[in-house]
Specification:
globular, about 160 residues, single chain, mainly alpha
Length: about 160
């Protein structure tokens, strides 16, 4: 219940931000949008859900909040390269291909580029949708288990 409740609160906030970034900002700057509006909304819905449970999973393992800022600075450039938009995925060593599967951005960016930039529809991003769905389920389960274990540890510390 805790993971689902916190996830819903974060989801509402980030869904609004995601729609703003994916729909309104490109329209403001005149960037061509070739994807169907509802296809992009569905992509953002699944991507934001995946990102929320990803962050809830990792928040259970990070004990000091300020550590996240250093981690964010270190991981951001790596995640940009792992999406395959700035460097071809075919040139990646096997380790980095597998490592990229940890992050929701790898599949979310590929799906967004396929749909909105290349003019594809949902069928062109089916594989990415499937991977994001598997990630969402896995991260929800891991976050739930980690939160449960964390609550047991905190109860024992209070006693």
């Amino acid at each position: 219940r805790i993971v689902f409740g916190r996830g819903c609160a974060y989801w509402l906030i980030y869904m609004a931000v995601g729609l703003y970034i994916a729909v309104i900002v490109p329209a403001l700057f005149g960037v061509p949008q070739r994807g169907e509006f509802w296809d992009v909304v569905l992509l953002i819905l699944i991507f934001v859900t995946d990102c929320v449970f990803f962050s809830l999973t990792w928040s259970s393992f990070i004990t000091r909040r300020e550590s996240v800022f250093v981690l964010f600075l270190f991981i951001s450039p790596i995640c940009v390269f792992l999406t395959g938009t700035s460097w071809p995925v075919t040139a990646f060593p096997a380790f980095w291909k597998w490592f990229s599967c940890i992050f929701p951005s790898t599949f979310g960016v590929k799906a967004y580029v396929n749909m909105n930039t290349a003019g594809g529809d949902l069928s062109t991003a089916t594989a990415q949708f499937m991977y994001m769905t598997v990630q969402t389920i896995a991260y929800f389960v891991i976050a739930s288990v980690a939160t449960y274990i964390e609550s047991i540890v905190l109860k024992k510390m209070d006693e």
